[in-house]
Every structure is written in structure tokens, then in C-alpha cells.
Design goal:
Layout (H helix, E strand, L loop, with lengths): L1 E4 L14 H18 L8 E7 H7 L9 H9 L4 E5 L9 H7 L8 E10 L2 H5 L5 H10 L4 E10 L4 E7 L9 E3 L4 H8 L4
Antiparallel strand pairs: 1-3, 2-3, 2-4, 4-5, 5-6, 6-7
Length: about 200
């Protein structure tokens, strides 16, 4: 199990102040994507459980020794503080849809995040894609306008969602886009793992 923690979210004076849970979720998703980005591109799908750090510390006092002191202090100050725990040994499945269809979470998990990489094309190029799967793959991989993207989506059981998107062409922490509705289909599929 890979344990990652998040510090208190940074404030942006140009954005309205979100509810604490949504703010901690946004920061958690950004930190998860940064963590995954350190491993480079062409990685597998990665899944993370999001747990309330304060509740986790109460349930497992020894956890405090594994966390940075400022993380422990932030968690004790705000019950919305989150810790992400990477899930290992994911089931062997054929597709992302199938993986999301078999994921379930115990009540102790407050949310989840998933990181995937995809190749995207402009709409006009997608419309010209051949119907044959083999030809479509060759077309996609050879298209000059293709973009490799890494998508990280997180949801909380209580409702908030956040997504971030990084492109290989602009692979820089400062160029990562974020918002609650960037990838609605994936967000809803991840949310369904809590139903």
C-alpha cells in the first residue's frame, strides 16, 4: 500500500472559496496527479482510496509517525483533511469500464480517485476515424494532432468531485488544468462505485 498525504489546500484569490471537503478533495487530486507524474508517461490505471486523515489517526494512532508533522497538525485542525491510499492488486480486467464496474468501497473510505492516460483527437479527426478497430488504432496513434493526456478524477461519497488534466505536450505542474466537471463521464462512473 502506498500512502500519500496532502497539506492544507492553497487558496486562489480569483476563485470562490469552496467548502472544506471540496477544497481538500481538489488538493488531494492535484497531489495524486503530481505523484503519478513523477513516474513519467505510459503508466497503468491507478486507483486511490481517500480517507479522512483525522478519523484514520483516531482509528490507527501509529499512523501519526508515518505522516509529516504539518500533515498531522492540519488533519487535527480540520476533519475534512484527506489522505490518499493507493490501491494495489487491482483486478485484471479488459477495460476501464470493467474495472470501475467491480470497484467497491467500505464505509471507512470517504472518496476515491483514479488516474488514467488517454489519447485524444480534435473532433474533426475523430469523425474521420476508420470503423475497423485495428485501423482505428493505427489512425489514432499516427495522427499528427493527437494529444496524450493524463486525467485524474476524484469524488467524495458526500458528493463533491474534482478533475485535473495534464498533456504530454505541456508536461509541467503549472500547466495542469483543474475543475469539477472536466470529465463528466469518468466522474459519474467513479461516483457509481459508491452506490
Amino acid at each position: 500500500m502506498d500512502l500519500m498525504t496532502d497539506e492544507a489546500p492553497l487558496s486562489d484569490p480569483d476563485q470562490p472559496t469552496p467548502e472544506p471537503a471540496a477544497a481538500f478533495l481538489a488538493e488531494s487530486v492535484r497531489e495524486i496527479e503530481r505523484h503519478v507524474s513523477r513516474g513519467g508517461w505510459d503508466g497503468p490505471v491507478r486507483v486511490f482510496a481517500l480517507v479522512g486523515t483525522q478519523a484514520a489517526l483516531e482509528a490507527e494512532p501509529g499512523l501519526a509517525a508515518q505522516l509529516a508533522p504539518e500533515v498531522v497538525a492540519a488533519a487535527r485542525a480540520d476533519a475534512a483533511h484527506l489522505t490518499s491510499v493507493e490501491q494495489e492488486g487491482l483486478p485484471q480486467v479488459e477495460s476501464l469500464e470493467e474495472l470501475l464496474g467491480v470497484l467497491t468501497w467500505p464505509d471507512t473510505v470517504d472518496g476515491a480517485a483514479i488516474v488514467v492516460e488517454r489519447v485524444v483527437l480534435p473532433t474533426a479527426a475523430e469523425d474521420a476515424m476508420p470503423p475497423d478497430p485495428g485501423e482505428a488504432l493505427a489512425y489514432l496513434m499516427g495522427h499528427p494532432d493527437r494529444q496524450d493526456v493524463r486525467i485524474a478524477v476524484g469524488v467524495l461519497r458526500s458528493g463533491p468531485a474534482w478533475s485535473v488534466l495534464r498533456t504530454r505536450a505541456h508536461d509541467d505542474d503549472a500547466a495542469v488544468a483543474g475543475g469539477p466537471d472536466l470529465v463528466p463521464g469518468l466522474t459519474e462512473a467513479l461516483r457509481a462505485t459508491f452506490l
